[in-house]
Amino acid sequence: MNHPSPINPKPWSAYLLALAFACQATTDSDYDTTYVEEEPDPIYAEHVRTTGFQTPQKEMADFTLPPGFEVTLFASEPDISKPINIAFDDRGRLWVTQSGEYPIKAGPGEGKDRISILEDSNGDGKADIITHFAEDLNIPIGIIPVKDGAIGYSIPHVYRFYDRDGDGKSEAREVLIADFEHRDTHGMVNNLFRGLDGWIHASHGFSNISTVSGSDGDSITMTSGNTFRFRMDGSRVEKTTDGRINPFGSDLDEWGYHYSADCHTLPIYQLIWGGNYTQWGKKDPNMGFAPTMMDYGLNSTALSGLVYYTDNQFPEEYQHSFYSGDVVTCRISRSVMAFSGSTPKATRKRDFLVSKDPWFRPVDIKIGPDGAMYVADFYNPIIGHYEVPLDHPDRDRKSGRIWKITYKGKQREIRDWSKASMSELLKEMGSPILATRLASTDALVDYKGKGATSELKKLLQADPTSPHQRIQTLWALHRLQSLAPEELKSGLGHADPMVRVHAFRVFANLPEWDEVHRGWALAGLGDENPHVRRAAAEAINRHPHAAFYKALVEAHQLAPAEDTHLVYTLKMALFTHLGDPSLIRLAAEEMWTEEQAALIALVVSDTDSPEAGQYLLDYLRERKVPEDRWIGYIRSAARSVPPGQLPVVVELAIEKSGESNLASFKWALALQDGIQQRGMETPARLVSWIQDIGGQTLSGLESDLGRWSADMEEKYQFAASTAGRYRFTGHTGPLKQLVQSEPVPEALRGEAALALIRISPTAHMDFLSVQMNDSDQKTSFRQRMANTIGQSATPQARAILADGLKDAPMELQTSIAAQLARSEPGISILIERIRKGYAPARVLKTRNVEESFRNHANTLQRQSFESLTANLMPISEERERLISQRIQGYTVNEDALASGKQLFTENCALCHQVNNEGGMIGPQLDGVGNWGIQALATKIIDPNRNISENFRTYNIRLNNGEVKSGLFRREEGQVIVLADQSGKEFSIPKNEISEQTASTMTLMPDTFSETLDQDKFNSLMGYLLSVK
């Protein structure tokens, strides 16, 4: 892509000033109103923007801001390239990580990305001194300047960069935290910031699974979205929260709460230390996931950057607001919050900045030391990681801008904290501006060190010392390891609740507590202020002891249900305590009320120890258990009880199932799941009960078929699976009925067919052959039969499959070919039948067939593959033509929305969620209409074009020869859990797996190119485009 030459600087400055006023002149005056949904411009739906490159001046003219605000260009290409994260140092300079490599990482030692330092030396609002700090990096993202250099991430490590001579260039570096996984380059390690505690806090991005440790050797493991902190010297790493998808943006408020953006779930979370947050593949814990603070999204799943504005350069009505970057709809949104107890509740306001230039990509936002908002703009026609091929030629790799947004007429000089005197630093620790308080405290600790101790202690004794100054003094003394116990105690009892909250946060960071400390913590649980109670509970969570578990239970009883963050913090603290078997034993000896015992059972059910299992078993035998808790608790008890107590759990489940409204098979499944997770064989008594339930269910099929309903599916799924696993030779009749009954869902009919194969691979092959070749049946059902027949790796099965190729629909031929391609004998017969004209050679080029063929073929067979497919158009070109045809034939028909929604429900909703309805196997699709028809059509018709590592399927070969395919979800003890194409989870004991290989395909069916004709495509597309 060609870019214009640099602009003459003098006209450039005048042009910027004129544009700054032009931006405000076109805005609406009422920006403080609650957000009203608007129809988005279709241009934001394009994954590859069709508008052209614009110079910074022209892009700026397309910004809309509230009256009185102005935007100026702080830096742009060619001085910088593609900014990702920005941060400010103690001299007020802006540091920026930038990458022309993104999203494709360079090879080891081949990185050319860099970190640069930008400085506005003359105060004209534009960087005029640009120093490239490090220039051989590989997709650097997170950055935090520190004394004598910086800490930053570059694949694959977090580094400490040194600049000891102060020339702005790093002359040395060392690895602080090593070897983060980087299969996916979405977010990796991003948004580093220095916490009140002096540690560096960071976010761990999408998909990757990283096990890292500090120099102390104590490791943590993070899967996809997590947050963590580490000491500046790399001596220790600690996980602070677990879960979410791709966090990318962090900030603090005056209370010390940490707020975080998540690209794919919600734009703002107030994080709870140790909280367990929702994530793809995670099983819902019995005690629930950590709570959220908002019930709305921002019409996008690409939120990047988050600030909570606590400065005063903006007008009062724009202070104490959240600002979130949206790189898809090219805007910066604004939200405000109010507290209910300690729980925040966000409300969306009118968008703060909207750009008409769809290349505007606000990937990071920071508030500068002057109170202005700085926006890193990854200026690009493409921002999607997997929506567009990573190597797409239109990805811009040179252009990038950093914008500065200020409120007109309110300028503030930037301070150099590294040169500030002791008295200046102490004074500014009481500033009304949070960022100033934090910067002055950091500078005091870094540059004055222990020499500041006596002056800090004087501040604590002075009267009056402002609450803000007292808070920072407590933190500074703690970080200097000079905080006396009586000084901390004074903070814990201070009249101002915010001081008490921060004192408890300091308190939580002490390495050890004694009996006196525990008395302070217990007092905090009874504080009149909910923020203080919550801070005390969080501190207790980090210092478990026998003195606390009873007080936590009592505090939970008193906590208002609407204060969800306090309630969860108390539960989380209790969870941590009861994860200690010795504390469970103590808790078991207490005389609890029904309500208290129920809370302990709830929390214990999510822990895993013999003591936890025993407590839960006793609770189930002795207490009144809510009906909706039984199944989860039985599963937990079966997983955790001492081995000798397992028969007791089984008998209890059998007994209670007879008194319950819940179906017996659900109880049996819960027992089976728990036992498999512990890696044990299913006890004979349970096997007998499972067989009885399965046999009785199949015996009642005749009457059930006459009144079939959707809620019967799970029951018969269990029965069919049981029949196959335990080879019910006496129940083949009902199984065949299930296979042949069209009101029965196809997935269940397939399970019944598989049971027949397991019972006798030869006896039922002819029956299944008839089903596969029945042209009156839906093609999708016939495909299931082919896949089932393929589970029997016998000459008889291969012959039936080969015969079925002739005159079959292309989708069925593809399924048959995929089964034959799993072995050399099958490949030989497949090649033979293609040469005889039973199926076109094109079938060999479908992705699943080609992948399996290449994995199992010998040299001669590979040569045959090449000769048969030599003159075929590549599948990608064929699909591209079909996509173009479907888009050209698309017509909007409001009457077809209902049928489109029905198609979505039948084909997509098992895995995808819209408006909180549907499955959570694949990405949620709120706002998917903003993608536009091109992107949606590509994803539907060619789903394997560009696969996220998180949605790659795995082929699992079992010890008995069967092959299972599915999307990996999680591990549960001694089993792995996957999801199939119907969106249902299934588990496989690890000891039954002989081979596991990653596929080149996603779980999403690759057959919509065949099954969606133009009319169905129009209906489905019309519905999807309406979801905004």
Automatic annotation (TrEMBL):
Keywords of this entry: Heme, Iron, Metal-binding
Taxonomy, superkingdom: Bacteria
UniProt GO MF annotations: electron transfer activity; heme binding; metal ion binding
Residues annotated as domain Cytochrome c: 895-1028
NCBIfam families: CxxCH_TIGR02603, Piru_Ver_Nterm
Protein's name according to its UniProt entry: Cytochrome c domain-containing protein
Organism name: Lunatimonas lonarensis
